[in-house]
């Protein structure tokens, strides 16, 4: 059994051993830490200006590459990837698009920045002492995408129009006084949200994009009891007459046509089936049924003149049936049972304007031009048309002679007579060749057609304007050929 002295000796030795071991361990750990940090710093220094080892961009290794080489490699890979088709597949059917068609781009600079930051801290000190164990971890750089959501949605909307299988709704027929149902068929609608999510997920992986499209089911109603109730409801509606009125015209729509306007559709709020309105079919029928109400506009024909003048042909506004507004009225009133008499809504179609061409006979001073072919008189100043009016020149066999003349005399009013005519108080007379003149007319209003014995007939109002415009010596040019009819 150890004595007290032996216990004291053992305890003393133990304390001496501990006092030597603990400092050695601490020193060792500190030494390892210093070596580790030093190694990390040295390793970080050797990787300055380089991507850390083990990093890749998609399937492209870019670790240990200099920044310049790595950025060029990323740029080239993005350019190549951007040209690859994005495939949307539905069984054997496939639709191909490019990233640009979908409004998707790649931010190369941001992607390169992501690659540079892998393995490095946010601060300079953290980057310098990055631990060796964090380097070469097989990190994959995700591309920085530039996404235009609107263009993706627009493309998927176009895709759905091609890929969807529309449901064939239950319809109705009216024949021999009986209403019958025509069976429907389920349809498919593209699940655009799922397609978009899968598209973006694959793009972020920087893999070749091929998306298997998924669809939502459009149901058609089934069940004998349900269809019989709907048929009975449709029969009540079809036998209720629909009268379309516009002005003094009333058109009654035949029951056979009304039957084609009705379909069975699902009421999403109440989760049941009800009678709906097929606007597309109704629109096509009304386009034919109401076509007689359409009136094409007649163009207003005029010349570009310095003064506001009455056009040669005033033209006429047209009208057309406002189909969408009329369909709204039918759906709101007839379909709901409120009224069987619907006012057809018409809208005005404004007359177009046709500008005719005319060339001044003189580019300096005042001049008057009479065009026999157009039965029109024009007043020019310095080559610019001032005003114009319809005229009536000499009719066959005494047409107005053509040529270059000048106003040689003006008379406020005077008598005109000759074989077969006697006309007192003719106003606003301008003679330009012998007895030929431009003058006012009170005995007819058929301007635009040959009516005279050789003079140029104008309305009194127009003749006054020409009288005040023209002066002695004003050139008068007569051109064209007088119409025979």
Individual helix count: 11
> Which bin fits the share of residues in helices?
25-40%
Mean of pLDDT: 87
Shape: flat
**Remind me, CATH topology of one domain?**
Ubiquitin-like (UB roll)
Biggest sheet, spatial arrangement of strands: 24-23-22-30-25
Kindly describe this structure.
- With 485 residues, this protein is α+β, with helices and mostly antiparallel strands.
- Among the domains are: 224-353, Ubiquitin-like (UB roll) (Roll), CATH 3.10.20.800; 359-479, L,D-transpeptidase catalytic domain-like.
- The strands form 11 sheets. A 5-stranded mixed beta sheet has the order 24-23-22-30-25, covered by helices on one side. Strands 26-27-28-29 form a 4-stranded mixed beta sheet.
- Strand 15 and strand 16 (272-277) form a beta hairpin.
- The longest helix has 43 residues, at 4-46.
- The termini are far apart.
- The model has no long low-confidence stretch (mean pLDDT 87).
């Amino acid at each position: 059994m150890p004595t007290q002295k032996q216990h004291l000796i053992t305890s003393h030795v133990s304390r001496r051993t501990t006092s030597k071991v603990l400092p050695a361990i601490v020193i060792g750990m500190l030494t390892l830490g210093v070596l580790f940090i030093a190694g990390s710093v040295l390793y970080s220094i050797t990787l300055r200006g380089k991507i850390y080892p083990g990093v890749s961009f998609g399937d492209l290794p870019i670790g240990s590459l200099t920044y310049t080489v790595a950025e060029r490699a990323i740029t080239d890979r993005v350019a190549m990837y951007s040209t690859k088709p994005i495939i949307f597949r539905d069984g054997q059917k496939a639709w191909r698009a490019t990233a640009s068609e979908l409004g998707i781009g790649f931010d190369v600079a941001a992607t390169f920045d992501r690659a540079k930051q892998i393995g490095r801290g946010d601060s300079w000190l953290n980057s310098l002492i990055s631990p060796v164990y964090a380097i070469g971890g097989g990190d994959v750089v995700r591309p920085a995408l530039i996404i235009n959501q609107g263009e993706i949605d627009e493309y998927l909307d176009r895709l759905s129009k091609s890929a969807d299988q529309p449901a064939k709704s239950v319809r109705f027929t009216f024949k021999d006084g009986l209403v019958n149902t025509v069976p429907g068929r389920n349809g498919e609608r593209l699940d655009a949200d799922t397609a978009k999510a899968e598209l973006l997920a694959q793009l972020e992986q920087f893999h070749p994009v091929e998306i298997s499209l998924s669809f939502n089911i459009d149901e058609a109603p089934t069940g004998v009891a349900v269809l019989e109730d709907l048929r009975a409801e449709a029969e009540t509606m079809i036998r209720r007459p629909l009268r379309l009125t516009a002005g003094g015209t009333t058109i009654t729509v035949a029951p056979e046509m009304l039957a084609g306007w009705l379909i069975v559709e699902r009421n999403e709020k109440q989760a049941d089936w009800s009678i709906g309105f097929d606007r597309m079919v109704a629109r096509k029928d009304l386009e034919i049924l109401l076509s007689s109400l359409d009136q094409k506009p007649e163009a207003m024909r005029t010349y570009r003149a310095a003064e506001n003048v009455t056009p040669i042909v005033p033209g006429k506004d047209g009208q057309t049936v406002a189909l969408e507004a009329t369909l709204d009225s039918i759906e709101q009133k007839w379909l709901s049972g409120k009224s069987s008499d619907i006012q057809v809504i018409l809208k005005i179609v404004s007359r177009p304007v046709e500008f005719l061409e005319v060339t001044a006979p003189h580019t300096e001073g005042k001049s008057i031009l009479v065009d026999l072919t157009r039965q029109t008189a024009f007043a020019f100043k310095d080559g610019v048309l001032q005003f114009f009016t319809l005229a009536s020149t000499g009719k066959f066999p005494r047409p107005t002679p053509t040529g270059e003349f000048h106003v040689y005399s003006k008379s406020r009013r005077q008598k005109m007579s000759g074989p077969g005519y006697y006309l007192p108080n003719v106003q606003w007379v301008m003679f330009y060749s012998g007895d030929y003149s431009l003058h006012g007319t009170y005995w007819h209003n058929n301007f635009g057609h040959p009516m005279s014995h050789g003079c140029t007939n104008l309305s009194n109002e127009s003749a006054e304007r020409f009288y005040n415009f023209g002066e002695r010596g004003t050139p008068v040019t007569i051109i064209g050929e007088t119409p025979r009819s």
